[in-house]
Design a protein that fits this description.
alpha+beta, six-stranded mixed β-sheet, 19% helix, disordered N terminus, binds 3-(2-carboxyethyl)benzoic acid
Length: 335
């Protein structure tokens, strides 16, 4: 795990790479070319360095790792009020913690503010192509029906995105944490060059979900191909959803369906290899931490490398979903 996968060479497109590393995050951030060093756990890391981001979810079981994003060349970084930014190699990482109490304790207002702020910063930094958004909000399943906090978040996100067409939505994750003091944590990747958003033919596009899932459908793409030549695929939070329905009521069977969805996304992106045969760095979100013991042998059997998979304890945005996977996959045939 100490070996860092070299970024591919000789490609015209901007290069970006991700790894999980066990080194001290301050040391990692001191290296050149580090766009972001992401830690997991409810205690925020040193926020003096804009590249240090903390996802407020406990790690389950395995040793905590830092998720490191690297680009070619120099990285500039800093803060602009409540927003942290880092920029280099044609990419921009932004992160924001929105205190809901400053927005009337309303998750919709907090999301609208956050998304407007992020869009404005992307324009200001001239990295307007939104590739990926990670959203972590407190108590995501609190409230019934259209009063569920996730649905309020979705509404506010859509308002914050304004006129942005669905074809420009980023790939995304939205997961619940249990630390209201962390607020709404959003971080994003955008670029000078556009990516190619992809949908999953097994699933209804999220932005076309029917009314039963809330008054405003969620604004995200199923995946984002960074560019055709590099074969780097940013995979949205993927769960046991087929069509628009949740399938299965056990974590094991939901995992199996989720893996089928992931294989379909890779095939749609033009990967010749399976997920197991591609380089991958995945995060697996579990509603119940104890399900890890059930899933671990299934993931081993599926060929998912243990040191490429982080287990995080978090709530998934539908109450009947027990497991969700997101991450990045790299097509060897194009590298
Ligand atoms: C789903 O397929 C599961 O609202 O940003 C996955 C990824 C899900 C992102 C989001 C929601 C989001 O509908 C839920």
């Amino acid at each position: 795990m100490s070996a860092v996968e070299p970024l591919s060479s000789g490609k015209a497109a901007a290069r970006i790479g991700i790894t999980y590393e066990h080194a001290d995050a301050d040391c990692i951030a001191a290296q050149t070319g580090v766009l972001a060093a992401i830690d997991f756990g409810i205690h925020p890391a040193n926020r003096d360095d804009a590249r240090r981001i903390t996802v407020p979810l406990p790690v389950i079981g395995n040793a905590a790792a830092t998720e490191v994003w690297r680009v070619d060349g120099e990285v500039r970084h800093g803060h602009d009020g409540d927003l942290a930014w880092s920029e280099g190699g044609g990419y921009l990482m932004l992160s924001l913690r929105v205190d809901e109490s400053a927005h009337g304790d309303d998750p919709a207002a907090a999301a609208e503010y956050g998304y407007q702020r992020l869009l404005a910063a992307m324009a200001e930094h001239d990295h307007r192509h939104w590739l990926r958004a990670w959203n972590y909000l407190a108590d995501i399943n609190d409230g019934d029906g259209d009063n569920e906090r996730y649905r309020h978040f979705s509404r506010g996100r859509a308002r914050g995105l304004g006129q942005l067409p669905a074809t420009s939505y980023p790939a995304a994750t939205a997961i619940g944490h249990n630390d209201p003091a962390s607020g709404l944590v959003v971080y994003t990747l955008s670029a000078r060059q556009p990516g190619r958003p992809l949908e999953n033919p097994r699933q209804v596009s999220a932005w076309r979900y029917p009314r039963q899932y809330g008054p405003v459908p969620p604004s995200f793409a199923r995946a984002m191909l960074l560019d055709e030549r590099s074969g780097r695929l940013l995979i949205s939070g993927t769960a046991s959803v087929v069509g628009h329905d949740t399938l299965h009521d056990s974590a094991g069977r939901q995992l199996h369906e989720t893996l089928r969805n992931l294989e379909t996304l890779l095939a749609t992106a033009g990967f010749r290899d399976s997920l197991a045969a591609s380089s991958h760095w995945l995060k697996l979100y579990l509603r119940h931490a104890h399900d890890r013991d059930v899933l671990l042998p299934l993931l081993d059997a599926a060929g998912i490398a243990r040191d490429r998979l982080l287990y995080l304890h978090g709530d998934i945005c539908r109450r009947d979903l027990l497991v969700e996977i997101d991450g990045i996959a790299v097509d060897h045939a194009r590298n």
